Amino acid sequence: MDAFLTARLALAAALVGVFWLVHVVGLIIYNVFLHPLRDLPGPRLASVTRIPMVIRKYQGDMQQWLMKLHEQYGEVVRLAPNEVSYINAPAWKDIYGFHTGNKPNFPKDASFYGPDASGGNAGLFRADDTSHARQRRILSHAFSERALLQQEPTFRRYVNLLITGIRQLVASDPNTKVDIERWYNYTTFDVMADLSFGEPLNLLVDHSQEWFLKAVFSFLKLQSMSQILRYYPGIARLLRPLFIPKSIIAKQARNNQECIAKVNRRLERGSGEADIWGLVMKQEGDKAMSLREMHANGITFMVAGTETTATALSGLTYLLLQNPDKMEKLAKEIRSAFKTEDEITISALARLEYLNACFEEGLRLYPPVPLGPPRVVPQTSAVVCGKVLPPGTSCYVSNYAAYHSERNFTDASKFVPERWLNDSRYADDNKSVLQPFSFGPRNCLGKNLAYHEMRMILGNFLWNFDLQICEESQNWMKQKVYVVWEKPPLIVRVKDVRPDRPGQQL
Fold this sequence. Notes:
This protein is α+β, with helices and mostly antiparallel strands. It contains 21 helices and eleven strands. It is globular and about 95 Å long. It starts with a helix and ends in a 10-residue tail after the last strand. About 45% of the residues are buried.
């Protein structure tokens, strides 16, 4: 009896193995020879399985892989059986643009984004089109040009604290080394916490809350690792301990709890204060945000509105340090434009042509979000760059690959702000492909805020200081990507060119 049972079990196992093998072989044949995307160029192995892509994501070098693939295969690359990357400008409109009539918008790829950190899809970032439009109307007033000009004293206060903090370090030791990337983060986190909740972290004064910075990057790294697991839901629970350390999960939980607590404390103070939540709380009825929406958006603001801005500032600073002639030209423009610090206003900085060109070039070479934000082709199918994509296809414009492609930019690997100032050498550049804040109805709500904040920080910094990069940061841009760049310290020496300036009391 035991022998008979053993034989039957062996037969059953063999049949399961055969069926599994037939299924796998059939899937390979379909993906390679019958799939609607079979004619798109790309690595043959990638048409069979997404494992090559998953490996690159896990290793943090997906942006380099994408760049090489597009160099080899062209403007369109099939990266996985059901995933396509683009580097041409028309793809922005086709994928991310607003569609009408019988052409619905492309929804965000849930397997990439996952649920809100507060649970569900309540927040602006992941909401469906109807909920997104309602929430965006509420928040757009807080990010309007008029509202941002009214917040100029807030920008000024924290920029003064930044300048004073650096000035005191230099005064105590002229040879001191400064991690400017960390100080940029102190500033952007303090600004965003104050604008959002009327409750700064006071990082520029007291570094005891520095854990919040580390928690935010852990949050982003957790998102990157979770994306990989969502590709394989059947075995995600088994793989989760291998992919995601408990320390990262704990840091994310602490970050979420603190953001939610800030929202709750702000709600207790009422709607009288002139910050983002003051406007949110004035909405009533069908327009009002739910508490879950507020919690989700509070977490989003303290991630999307902080780390990415500091990243862009750090990247541009490094590029300027690696190109001393460009740094000298920018410093000269800033210092000749303003006789006193009081003249360095949001409006005045926005008129500096070379400063604006430097930011565009910095965002091109070092986009804070290097990979493409994926969307999914709706059930009606859709045409992207002249090719019909079947429903469910994940597609996107890959920022880093697009911006570093010689198909789009002459001297693509070089830092040349002049390309944005009508230099005839770069007349053929495909500048419309540069969309670092995304495109369409779901583009970054805080775009204007980011530009004003970056100009205010860098403009004041270069008005007051000269910078020199230290040897240990010469290769600073060799970084991994986990949603955003995994940045090492950016170590510089700082020379105070206005040592007689009074500092704001720390």
